[in-house]
Each structure stands twice: as structure tokens, then as C-alpha cells.
Amino acid sequence: MAVRLFPKLVLFGDSLTQQSFSEGGWGATLADYYQRKCDVLNRGFSGYTSAYNKFILPKVLQSDNNPKGSAVAAIVLLGSNDAVCNETDPRGLTVEQYATNLMDILTQFMNDGMEASQLVLLTPPAVADDKYKECCAERDVPVSLWDARVKPFAEKCADVGKKLGVEVVDLYKLFHEQPNWESFVSDGLHFSKEGNQFVAQQVIPVLDTKLGHLPIIFPDWKDVDPKHPDRYFCND
Q1: Where are the alpha helices (DSSP H) in the chain?
Q2: Mind listing the pLDDT tens digit for each residue in 69-125?
Q3: In the annotation, is 183 catalytic?
Q4: Is 228 a catalytic residue?
Q5: Which of 51, 74, 173, 188 has the most other CB atoms within 10 Å of its CB?
Q6: 161 with 167: CB under 8 angstroms?
Q7: What is the tally of helices (H) and strands (E) in the chain?
Q8: Is 15 marked active-site?
Q9: Which residues, 6+ apart, have CB-to-CB distance to 90 below 8 Å?
Q10: Coiled-coil ranges per the record (predicted)?
Q11: Residue 169: enclosing H or E segment and its boundaries?
Q12: In the 8-state DSSP scheme, what is residue 1?
């Protein structure tokens, strides 16, 4: 049997992705769910905006989609840092700048051999304003983000996905549809245990339409003749 390529699922984003491999994180849940079917790669960069990520993506793809076709799906989650108020945080972008960057990022994935059907776009989630204000006060930093600022970015994110034929999971909308959604964020922005669980629950059914066909890598141990394991692992 020929040595199989281990497919890769790339998670690309900011701190909401970087922290997703923490205990109970949505990325860790995906890694567990797809274990032995594909490697889940965390490519989250805390504090980054789409303006930063579009420049690092070529390096990520060079590493993670090499050889071409080894990345079988990707999730992109950006926008929370883009939405900060530029008057208090110079990272802040306009909605149109964000949209242009997001289209650039998705196009880069597609130009590297991935189909639109292999991509999933997550909108930036809702912000619990009171919690976020408390967090900023504790850190002695100005409040540069609030829920009303995120909404147009989430809407634009969904529009970009629609234009490019990329499936969108609208976290902003889905959060607001839950009566207890403020419990989904620990500090007003980043996911709590409950929030991570909720995100994973929304993402897995979407990913299964793209990755559900992946076989388990190498035979189940019960299917291997212990007297002749070479027959299962050493043949081309």
C-alpha cells in the first residue's frame, strides 16, 4: 500500500483562531473530531487584521499546501481587529478595506489550487459590550470595539463569501439568535468554553459536507493480521 498523504485543514485568522487550540477550544474540537482523517493546522495570529494576514498567507500556503492539494479545506475567521475604532487603535480599517483584503485572502487560497467549495468563511462574532468595557477598564486601555461596530463587518464578510461562492457561517447572527449569547465570550470578545462549543457545533456540519468523504488513515487495528502486518503497510 502506498504511503498516503495526510490531508490538512487550515484554520487561518487572528486570536480567535490562535486560542482555538486551548483546552476546549473550537479548533481543538475539530482536531479531535477529524483525528486520523486530516491534520488540523492552527494558523491564528493574535492581534492581526486582514491587512496583515493577506501578506503572510503566501508563506503559510508554501508551508501547509506543499505539495499542492495537501490542504483539502480552510477556515478563515478575521474581522474583529479590523473593526476597532481607528481613532483609538490604528489597526482599524474601513469596511471596504476589510472586504478587499478578505477577497484577496480567499482568492489566494483558490489561486493555490483550492476550490471555493473547500473554503469556509466565519464572520466576526458579536461583542458583549459590558464585558468588553470591564476588560478594557481592568487593562487601563480605551474601548476601541463594540458590537455595533462589528455588525457591518460581519455583514460585509457574508457578502464577500456570497460573491466568491464560499460558504459562510455567520457567527455574528448566530450568536445574537441565542438568548444567552453573552456567555459565549469570556472578556466580551474572545470565546468562553460555551462559546467554543457553540462555534464547533456550527462549523462541524459544514465541514462534514467537505471532509466527510475522507477515509481513516491506515487500516483499523482490528483489520490487521498481527501475524502478517507487512501485508498492510509495506506494499506499494
Answers
A1: 15-18, 26-33, 50-64, 95-111, 129-139, 147-164, 171-176, 193-211, 230-233
A2: 999 999 999 999 999 999 999 999 999 999 999 999 999 999 999 999 999 999 999
A3: no
A4: no
A5: 74
A6: yes
A7: 9, 5
A8: yes
A9: none
A10: none
A11: strand 167-169
A12: -
Q: Which of 224, 12, 26 is nearest to 102 (CA)?
A: 12
pTM score: 0.94
List the catalytic residue out of 129, 159, 187, 192: 187
Calpha distance 50→98 (Å, rounded): 6
- Inter-residue contact 172 to 151 (CB < 8 Å): yes
Q: What is the pLDDT of residue 230?
A: 86
Band (1; pLDDT cuts 50, 70, 90): very low
- E strand or H helix that includes residue 119: strand 119-122
Secondary structure of residue 161 in the 3-state scheme: helix
Which residue type occupies 53?
N
Nearest to 122 by CA among 173, 179, 66, 78: 78
Residue 52 has pLDDT above 80, yes or no: yes
Parallel, antiparallel or unpaired: strands 71-77 and 39-44: unpaired
Please tell me which residue in 50, 147, 170, 190 is annotated as part of the active site: 190
User: Rounded to an integer, what distance in angstroms lies between the CA atom of residue 29 and that of residue 75?
Assistant: 14
Tens of pLDDT, residues 125-137: 999 999 989 999 9
Of 122, 118, 82, 126, the C-alpha closest to 101 is 82
Candidates 15, 20, 50, 80; catalytic one: 15
Cross-sheet strand order for the sheet of 39-44:
39-44, 8-13, 71-77, 119-122, 167-169
Residue with grid cell 503566501, as numbered in its chain: 58
